[in-house]
Structure formats: structure tokens, C-alpha cells
């Protein structure tokens, strides 16, 4: 989650507080963050495809991120950090909520993974650049999106790979991701604010302003009998990769 002015505060304090309150149950696949557990394999499928396309020889490797550094911005309790570590990366996870960082560190220790977790705004932390930068379901919680993306871009190595995912701002997402999802308890009430969603065209423009170009883009859709899956349909949610121009 992020918001404001990354050089100071890009994550809205109320957003950080909201997600901090969910830290204890983050790793419960049937708890309030169940939707993240369900979408994580879909994200990872896209990320693996992006890695294989970005680095020669990665497709043949069981640990394609070996020798590479990865940064997860808005890492929550580490749902994405841990699989990135299993792909061989030296992983740093950053989150505005100290409670999330504590939950992430405890879980990583419990499963024997060496992951560095840091609490705070990414721009204010003493970290360098990374081969892979991920920021999933974060920008919709950011107040100053151009400032946030400039700071994200500053953490990307010259030949690095960026992956982002976020809900699209459409009539369908308003009805399903906000109204229906909260009404039936699929996501906790207050998770989403539709007016803060970003369309693919808007995000591509913001990334271009930050010196990045989109290299691949897919929708994340849902269908009875298939569940969540990568799709050409971006009406609800989408995921993209980008690199420096």
C-alpha cells in the first residue's frame, strides 16, 4: 500500500493502519486475506513468464533469480517475497506497516527462508537498486502516484525488471471488486476505494513519465469452473511488466 510523497509519505497513514490490523491473519488462507492467497499463483505465473522473457537462459533454470536481488514494495506479510526467494533471489520486502513486517519476518523464519524485511517508505530506506522490483496491489493505495512511481523506478537496476498489478477502474470493478466482494466478505470492508483504481492506459503513461516502458500486460479474470486466471480481459484486474526505456 502506498500514498502521498514517497520522499516523505506516499502511503496514506489510514491505509497502512488498515492493513496493519490484518497482519496477524495474513498467512491464513481462509482468513481475511484469502483473496490474496487465491490470486498469488496467478501473479507468480505471470512473473515467471516475465522473468523467462527478460533474462536469457532463465526459462531453463529452476532458480532463475539466483544471483539476483529482488525488492517487493508493499510486501504485506510476505506472500510474494517467499516464492521469489524460492526462485533464488536475495529478497528485500518493504512495507509501511511495522506489524506486517513483523508477521512477514516471523513466517519466513518459521519456514527457513532468509528474507530481509524493512518497515517504512521505500524512498526513505537505505537500500540500493534491484534486478527485480515488484509492487502488487499497492498503487491503488497511493496518494501521489507519479512520486511513488519515480521512487519505484529509482530502485530498479539499469537492466532490471518491474512487475506491478492493480485493479482497473471500470464499472465492472466497481460492482464486483468493491460492492460485491465486500458484501460477501471476499475482501475486508474498506480494502478498496474505486476512485483510486488506475486504468492500464493511465499506469502506462505514469510509467513512461518515470522512464519505464511496458513489455507485457495481462488481465486477471475469474470464471466459474476456472477461477482466477491470466486473461486478455482486463476489466477487473491486470498485471504488467516494464523495464527502463
Automatic annotation (TrEMBL):
<keyword id="KW-0808">Transferase</keyword>
<keyword id="KW-0830">Ubiquinone</keyword>
<dbReference type="InterPro" id="IPR010233">
    <property type="entry name" value="UbiG_MeTrfase"/>
</dbReference>
<dbReference type="GO" id="GO:0061542">
    <property type="term" value="F:3-demethylubiquinol 3-O-methyltransferase activity"/>
</dbReference>
<dbReference type="InterPro" id="IPR029063">
    <property type="entry name" value="SAM-dependent_MTases_sf"/>
</dbReference>
<feature type="binding site">
    <location>
        <position position="43"/>
    </location>
    <ligand>
        <name>S-adenosyl-L-methionine</name>
    </ligand>
</feature>
<feature type="binding site">
    <location>
        <position position="136"/>
    </location>
    <ligand>
        <name>S-adenosyl-L-methionine</name>
    </ligand>
</feature>
<keyword id="KW-0949">S-adenosyl-L-methionine</keyword>
<dbReference type="GO" id="GO:0032259">
    <property type="term" value="P:methylation"/>
</dbReference>
<dbReference type="GO" id="GO:0102208">
    <property type="term" value="F:2-polyprenyl-6-hydroxyphenol methylase activity"/>
</dbReference>
<feature type="binding site">
    <location>
        <position position="74"/>
    </location>
    <ligand>
        <name>S-adenosyl-L-methionine</name>
    </ligand>
</feature>
<comment type="function">
    <text>O-methyltransferase that catalyzes the 2 O-methylation steps in the ubiquinone biosynthetic pathway.</text>
</comment>
<dbReference type="GO" id="GO:0010420">
    <property type="term" value="F:polyprenyldihydroxybenzoate methyltransferase activity"/>
</dbReference>
<protein>
    <recommendedName>
        <fullName>Ubiquinone biosynthesis O-methyltransferase</fullName>
        <ecNumber>2.1.1.222</ecNumber>
        <ecNumber>2.1.1.64</ecNumber>
    </recommendedName>
</protein>
<comment type="similarity">
    <text>Belongs to the methyltransferase superfamily. UbiG/COQ3 family.</text>
</comment>
<feature type="binding site">
    <location>
        <position position="95"/>
    </location>
    <ligand>
        <name>S-adenosyl-L-methionine</name>
    </ligand>
</feature>
<keyword id="KW-0489">Methyltransferase</keyword>
<dbReference type="Pfam" id="PF13489">
    <property type="entry name" value="Methyltransf_23"/>
</dbReference>
<comment type="pathway">
    <text>Cofactor biosynthesis; ubiquinone biosynthesis.</text>
</comment>
<keyword id="KW-0831">Ubiquinone biosynthesis</keyword>
Amino acid at each position: 500500500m502506498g500514498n502521498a510523497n514517497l520522499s516523505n509519505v506516499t502511503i496514506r497513514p489510514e491505509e497502512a493502519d488498515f492493513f496493519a490490523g490484518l497482519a496477524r491473519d495474513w498467512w491464513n488462507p481462509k482468513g481475511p486475506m484469502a483473496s490474496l492467497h487465491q490470486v498469488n499463483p496467478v501473479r507468480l505465473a505471470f512473473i515467471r513468464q516475465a522473468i523467462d522473457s527478460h533474462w536469457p537462459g532463465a526459462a531453463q533454470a529452476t532458480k532463475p533469480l539466483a544471483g539476483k536481488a529482488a525488492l517487493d514494495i508493499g510486501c504485506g506479510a510476505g506472500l510474494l517475497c517467499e516464492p521469489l526467494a524460492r526462485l533464488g533471489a536475495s529478497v528485500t520486502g518493504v512495507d509501511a506497516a511495522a506489524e506486517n513486517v513483523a508477521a512477514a519476518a516471523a513466517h519466513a523464519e518459521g519456514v527457513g527462508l532468509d528474507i530481509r524485511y524493512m518497515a517504512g517508505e521505500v524512498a526513505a530506506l537505505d537500500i540500493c537498486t534491484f534486478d527485480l522490483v515488484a509492487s502488487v496491489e499497492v498503487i491503488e493505495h497511493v496518494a501521489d502516484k507519479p512520486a511513488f512511481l519515480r521512487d519505484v523506478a529509482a530502485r530498479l537496476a539499469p537492466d532490471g525488471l518491474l512487475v506491478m498489478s492493480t485493479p482497473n477502474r471500470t464499472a465492472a470493478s466497481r460492482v464486483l471488486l468493491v460492492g460485491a466482494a465486500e458484501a460477501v466478505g471476499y475482501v475486508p470492508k474498506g480494502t478498496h476505494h474505486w476512485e483510486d483504481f488506475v486504468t492500464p492506459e493511465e499506469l502506462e503513461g505514469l510509467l513512461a513519465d518515470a522512464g519505464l516502458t511496458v513489455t507485457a500486460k495481462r488481465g486477471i479474470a475469474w470464471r466459474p469452473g476456472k477461477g482466477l486466471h491470466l486473461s486478455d480481459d482486463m476489466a477487473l484486474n491486470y498485471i504488467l511488466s516494464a523495464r527502463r526505456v
